[in-house]
Design brief:
This protein is mainly beta and 445 residues long. The protein is 14% helix and 47% strand. It has six helices and 32 strands.
Length: 445
């Protein structure tokens, strides 16, 4: 569109020159018979506008290219840019005449200011410049200029429902350019107000008209508060800013890993114990580098002072074993430590009462999944307790429990009724199978 008027103007000038029969074409210039004809061969050959679309109240630059098609120099003066809603800021810069050589082009840089109450739309300011040659015609052309008051928008397009203290979550800042023209140097700077935001700023660069961009930030809250994202950009050389506040709703994270301990069993001798169980990730996201260990009043000992599970996916579980010493089983804290997707170290502690899983009168074990196996004594009781496993309703005692006369049915006497019942059943079966032979014997007698 902006070149159409240039072509038309040039054709009109050529026709005028031909009609005057006072000029002829030679090379890239037109041979002018006199100064008036030469002045008539000056025309507006192009223009550039910065910014390409103005906000109301903005300043900018209109550069008009004026070319001389004649074979002699032409002097020009008094350039003007005329439109009721536009003011020329540097009008005093054109007090002296500008001379354009044969076949050359001169640039007229006009600094303008658009009135603040200018309605949106396309305007056609008139550019004029006058040759100093007596009797020459003024050179003029209309230059389209757009005004658009639509502002760039910033919003939070992605965020969790709640933020957990010291846990990192990702939010997306959306920047949308609804304007008719491009913007440049888009920069987003975060103000955490006491909370960690990474990175602290992001440079987007140019944002074309009618497009948007999603910019991620990682937020680690340390307190209740807001995070402010300040967005700055340029429209031409004019700097504009907008901002968006993100309130941090502190609570339980809905997307975090949630390690849970269950299915615990305990075995031990004296004050040394072995705990086994499962740890399950009941959360939505995976946990990395997961490690379990006990705390006071328990003291971790080898071979399982701590237990490294490693990565634990959501809805998955892993078995673990911990060994420790303690004189008090009423409150054993088991700490689970892991890392989230951002590399933050997270911990949770479950305090367990293990008294119901162990007897105080000897060595043995119990499981949280069934009844106790009872206590054990004698030379084989340690092996029996350490090897205790769960069968049906509870764990079974070792060799020491069987031959040491343990409690709760721990000796061979517990099997006597079963043996007697089995013998009676066997005798009954034999008598049934030999019934004919027995009946025959009685008849003979």
């Amino acid at each position: 569109m902006k070149y159409r008027f240039i072509v038309i103007s040039f054709l009109v000038l050529l026709l005028c020159s031909a009609a005057a029969s006072a000029a002829s074409i030679s090379g890239n210039t037109v041979q002018a018979a006199n100064p008036q004809v030469a002045a008539g061969l000056v025309y507006v050959s192009g223009y550039t506008i910065t910014p390409n679309v103005f906000y109301p109240g903005e300043t900018g630059t209109v550069t008009v290219q004026v070319s001389n098609a004649a074979n002699v120099s032409v002097a020009l003066s008094q350039p003007a840019f005329i439109e009721p809603h536009i003011q020329v800021v540097n009008q005093g810069s054109f007090v002296s005449a500008t001379t354009i050589g044969p076949g050359a082009t001169a640039n007229f840089n006009i600094v303008i200011a658009v009135d603040g109450d200018t309605p949106d739309g396309t305007y056609l300011p008139l550019f004029t410049v006058t040759p100093t040659t007596f009797g020459a015609t003024t050179v003029n052309s209309q230059i389209p200029l757009q005004v658009d008051s639509a502002d760039v928008r910033a919003s939070i397009s992605l965020k969790p429902e709640t933020f957990a203290i010291n846990q990192t979550d990702t939010v997306n800042v959306s920047v949308t350019n609804p304007r008719l023209g491009d913007i440049s140097d888009v920069l987003i700077v975060a103000n955490g107000n006491g909370n960690d935001v990474s990175p602290s700023e992001r440079f987007v660069g140019s944002l074309p008209a009618g497009t948007s961009v999603q910019v991620p930030f990682a937020i680690t809250p340390h307190q209740q508060g807001d995070v402010t994202f300040n967005v700055s950009f340029r429209n031409g050389n004019n700097i504009h800013t907008t901002s968006i506040d993100l309130p941090l709703n502190i609570g339980q994270s809905l997307t975090a890993s949630v390690p849970v301990i269950n299915n615990i069993a305990l075995a031990g001798t004296g004050n040394s114990f072995t705990m086994t169980g499962d740890v399950t990730n009941a959360g939505i996201t995976d946990a990395s580098g997961l490690v379990l260990y006990v705390g006071a009043p328990a003291t971790p000992i080898q071979p399982y002072a701590n237990y490294a599970v490693g990565a634990l996916a959501s809805d998955d579980f892993s078995s673990f074993t911990l060994t420790f010493t303690t004189n008090d089983l009423s409150a054993i804290p088991v700490t689970i430590q892991w890392k989230d997707a951002h590399g933050n170290t997270l911990t949770t502690t479950q305090t367990l009462d293990l008294r119901s899983l162990y007897s105080d009168t000897g060595t043995g074990s119990r499981s949280s999944g069934g009844a106790s196996s009872g206590s054990f004594s004698g030379a084989g009781s340690a092996a029996g307790g350490a090897a205790a496993t769960q069968y049906g309703g509870g764990p079974r005692g070792g060799v020491g429990g069987i031959f040491g006369g343990g409690r709760s049915g721990g000796g061979l006497s517990a099997f006597y009724p079963l043996i007697a019942s089995g013998l009676i059943i066997i005798i009954a079966i034999i008598l049934w199978m030999k019934r004919k032979w027995i009946i025959a014997k009685f008849r003979k007698q």
